[in-house]
Amino acid sequence: MGAASAFRLRQLGLETTLVDPCDGSAASLGNAGHIAIEQVEPLASWSNIRSVPRRWFGRGGALDVRAPLVFLPWARRFLTAARKENFALGAEALGSLLLHALPAWRRLTKDVGRADLLSESGHLLVWESEQTASLGRAAWAAADTGTARIQPLPDATLDSLWGLTHNRPVDGIRFSGTAQVTDLSELADTLEAAFRAAGGELIPSRVESLSQKDGVATAHLTDGSTLSADIILVAAGVGSARLMSDLGHNTPLIAERGYHLRWTDHDWPSELSPIVFEDRSMIVTRFAGGLQAASFVEFGKAGQKPDPRKWARLAAHVKALGLPVRGEPSAWIGCRPTLPDYLPAIGQSGVARNLFYAFGHQHLGLTLGPITAEIVAAVADGRTPPVALQPFDLNRFESRKAKRA
Ligand SMILES: Cc1cc2nc3c(=O)[nH]c(=O)nc-3n(C[C@H](O)[C@H](O)[C@H](O)COP(=O)(O)OP(=O)(O)OC[C@H]3O[C@@H](n4cnc5c(N)ncnc54)[C@H](O)[C@@H]3O)c2cc1C
Fold this sequence. Notes:
Layout: H1 2-11, E1 17-19, E2 34-35, H2 46-50, H3 52-55, E3 63-65, H4 68-81, H5 84-111, E4 118-119, E5 123-127, H6 130-142, E6 149-152, H7 155-162, E7 171-176, E8 179-181, H8 184-197, E9 201-203, E10 207-213, E11 216-221, E12 226-228, E13 232-234, H9 240-246, E14 254-263, E15 265-266, E16 275-277, E17 282-287, E18 290-300, H10 308-321, E19 325-326, E20 330-338, E21 345-348, E22 355-359, H11 365-380, H12 400-404
Parallel strand pairs: 1-9, 3-18, 5-16, 13-22
Antiparallel strand pairs: 2-8, 4-8, 5-7, 6-7, 10-11, 11-12, 14-18, 14-20, 15-19, 16-17, 17-18, 21-22
Helix pairs in contact: 1-8, 1-11, 5-11
């Protein structure tokens, strides 16, 4: 979010400084690489709530809570967001962003000279039992998938997958219109290089705090220096809440942690799109740097120790499926920045007029990075953004009393 926005702001001719410790903690460096334009329905939903017992980690699923005291107040807001009428509004808002996501990706990869980093080959989703296939088919048929299209997987494809797994998947579907980023670290390096080449400055440091005087925000860095600017954009993923709260913004952001394992030695075909093994809530993606299996929704705190049982479970899934990998995988954990209504926060602060924000993109931050950057640039340039921003305003979490004040 930060790197893409900085690039777009610099393209407007604005003197732009990106402050990031570049310590490798970004969720953007280890996600599943999936441009998930099909995920129009926010996860704050009753169908998601009903699935909790089935998805609970202790019962073999992918859902866990590691910080109950942080989770409970967040969950209260989540329940409100899941109400039928709020869910419908959320789907409309998310859909309006996702509609622009893939075109924005094409523009960004073209503008940084690396159209090859985007592969528009869709993705597959498979089931391993008749029962889950029948439930899954019905659920996807009823779901709003935006501009993505679904087709049954032909027998020939299921047969060919059998060559990669112990057992033939029982059934599956193919999504078209979705895409994949083929190399996340190359993407990050390319964005940084394009930003610098355009004249942008990168300060490898951390913003310690924000302050405001007379409605103008200032950033204070850990090295003791201070940055003043006509526009300050907070796009710090899960680290954004602390900075926004410095100025009194109520930002109920939670770290929704996910895990991956990645093998450099594998026999996964290069032409195969990402595959979701839905019964295991696991997505397998072939990147330039290896074959990756990712899963888990662990509500916790960003700095909390990882739970090694999650990596062990991932390894067990990969073994049970018989995926063609060899040797020791590298293990990674990252934090999805998630607000209780599963909508991002994109907008301008009502407290400091030079303060803008773009964070909270939950499971869809890779998908929505380029369109968010275009929105940020449009707002900074005084143009009407391509998407109405009212549903993404942070003031949705403020009390009526605070809003009136
Ligand atoms: C396992 C997993 C799989 C996922 N799969 C997908 C997927 O397939 N598709 C998809 O669209 N999304 C996916 N996501 C979600 C996606 O990765 C995130 O939504 C996205 O990376 C968030 O981007 P961001 O820029 O907001 O945050 P980050 O990528 O976390 O970046 C935040 C940056 O801010 C910096 N920062 C933090 N605090 C400060 C500070 N105080 N001062 C300066 N800098 C600071 C950090 O160093 C970091 O570089 C997945 C996430 C996980 C965990």
